[in-house]
Design a protein that fits this description.
Low-confidence stretches: 130-134
Order of helices and strands: HEHHHHEHEEHHH
Number of strands: 4
Structural class: alpha+beta
Distance between the termini: 27 Å
CATH topology of the largest domain: 60s Ribosomal Protein L30, Chain: A
Number of helices: 9
Strand content: 15-25%
């Protein structure tokens, strides 16, 4: 869903769209995102909120920081709940999808379309599945550092952020995991 949210925010920024401008959104996630838990769960547990496509999209549209998605005020926010009704998740039906998958088995395709202000805006994202792929296609240290900084900036003081980043990049040298956990507490 991160690729979807990234492309959605890009569309909103590029076309100067606010939540109130958006009539509807169609997203085409990675195939696992079409599993019922991403669309039909009852939003009762913390896990439900973390794996619910329309909820995650509604939070992104309202510019809620991802670390706040689990806050009770956000989970119960009527604007978020109402906006979720504007989000539809669809399977990917692009004619090049199948052939491109056969050619490139490590890249996945996602798409988001936003209808707003009498127009539609579509972005497609090709992304690499880093987690279980060979080293040549995994995220670089810079990619990982940037993602980590994006998530924790504003939560950790700058000096802790730098030290935590350095520690994570040299994790195999950490003798006591408590050293790392202390750095991750604001």
């Amino acid at each position: 869903m991160a690729a979807i949210v990234d492309r959605l925010i890009h569309i909103m920024d590029e076309h100067k769209l606010g939540a109130e401008d958006i009539e509807r959104i169609e997203i085409t996630p990675h195939a696992i995102g079409l599993n019922r838990m991403w669309q039909e769960n009852m939003l009762e547990t913390e896990e439900d909120f973390g794996f619910h496509g329309p909820y995650l999209v509604a939070c992104a549209v309202h510019r809620i920081t991802p670390v706040d998605y689990q806050n009770p005020e956000v989970r119960e926010n009527p604007k978020i709940r109402e906006f979720m009704k504007k989000v539809t998740m669809l399977p990917y039906h692009h004619p090049d999808f199948g052939p491109s998958m056969l050619e490139d088995r490590i890249t996945r395709v996602m798409r988001v379309t936003v209808w707003a202000k009498g127009a539609s805006f579509t972005e497609t994202s090709r992304y690499i599945e880093w987690s279980w792929r060979p080293a040549e296609v995994r995220a670089s240290d810079d990619d990982l550092v940037n993602k980590f900084n994006e998530i924790v900036t504003g939560l950790l003081p700058a000096q802790k952020l730098k030290k935590a980043t350095d520690t994570l990049l040299a994790l195999e040298q950490v003798k006591n995991v408590n050293e790392l956990t202390e750095l991750l507490v604001p």
